[in-house]
């Protein structure tokens, strides 16, 4: 789990410690990871000076899986590289997610793993994907940017997808891509793009609109409203049983 960022765009300190529904985002995401039978280890990348604090917070929920907190890096990519290196050697598939996505649906990683296996079975020999990501079609009109405030012609949005996390990869493919990016000086916005840049294939699986990312204050307000709605629905379902 990538949680080493300082949340500059949101401006409220480390994003992992921002509270939604009176719980820090870190615990929301750990809860979502625990809903997957295939997950046995979670590595959390943290700011260098907050490793012990993050570990204490993670341990406070008596997790059913091993949680390791390790120092992250200067960039998202560096943190991902550090997180993969901190995994036990026997782990062969890695799901990379962001602490800014607290509402990942239960069982998402289990579903991605099954979809990746299906994609590998259906692929031609030697051409199986390195990984798989949840993705959504775009609903807004998309335009190319022109000079200054001007727009160029519209772009066909049916060709585009918005990639979410968790993104699931074969460890050897992901580790090799991190090494290649470090040598090349490449800066990619997500791991799927990094894998593709260095020749790997990435499959897609249906994303979920509820799995949105908290980046700006508006997103935080939306997260509070979504959490309150989900909590109310859970109480109502319990009252109806």
From TrEMBL:
Against Pfam families, the record matches this protein to: IspD
Q: Does the keyword Coiled coil apply?
A: no
Extract one GO molecular function annotation from the record.
nucleotidyltransferase activity
Record-linked Gene3D superfamilies:
Spore Coat Polysaccharide Biosynthesis Protein SpsA, Chain A (3.90.550.10)
Entry-linked InterPro entries:
IspD/TarI, IspD/TarI_cytidylyltransf_bact, Nucleotide-diphossugar_trans
Q: Which UniProt keywords apply?
A: Nucleotidyltransferase, Transferase
Keyword field contains Transferase: yes
CDD domains assigned: CDP-ME_synthetase
Name of the protein in its database record: 2-C-methyl-D-erythritol 4-phosphate cytidylyltransferase
């Amino acid at each position: 789990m990538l949680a080493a960022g300082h949340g500059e765009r949101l401006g409220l300190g480390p994003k992992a410690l921002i509270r939604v529904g009176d719980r820090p985002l870190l615990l929301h995401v750990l809860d979502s990871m625990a809903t997957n039978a295939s997950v046995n280890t979670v590595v959390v990348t943290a700011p260098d000076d907050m490793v012990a604090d993050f570990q204490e917070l993670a341990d406070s929920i008596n997790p059913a899986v091993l949680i390791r907190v390790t120092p992250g890096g200067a960039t998202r990519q560096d943190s991902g590289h550090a997180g993969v290196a901190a995994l036990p050697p026997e782990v062969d598939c890695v799901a990379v997610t962001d602490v800014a996505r607290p509402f990942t649906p239960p069982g998402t990683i289990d579903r991605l793993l099954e979809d990746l296996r299906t994609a590998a079975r259906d692929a031609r020999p030697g051409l199986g994907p390195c990984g798989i990501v949840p993705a959504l079609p775009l609903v807004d009109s998309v335009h190319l940017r022109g000079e200054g405030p001007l727009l160029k012609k519209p772009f066909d949005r049916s060709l585009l997808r918005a990639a979410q996390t968790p993104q699931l990869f074969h460890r050897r493919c992901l580790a090799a891509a991190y090494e290649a990016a470090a040598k090349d000086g490449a800066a990619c916005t997500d791991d799927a793009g990094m894998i593709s840049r260095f020749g790997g294939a990435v499959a897609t699986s249906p994303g979920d609109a509820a799995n949105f990312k908290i980046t700006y204050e508006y997103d935080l307000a939306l997260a509070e409203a979504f959490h309150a709605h989900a909590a109310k629905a859970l109480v109502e379902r319990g009252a109806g049983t």
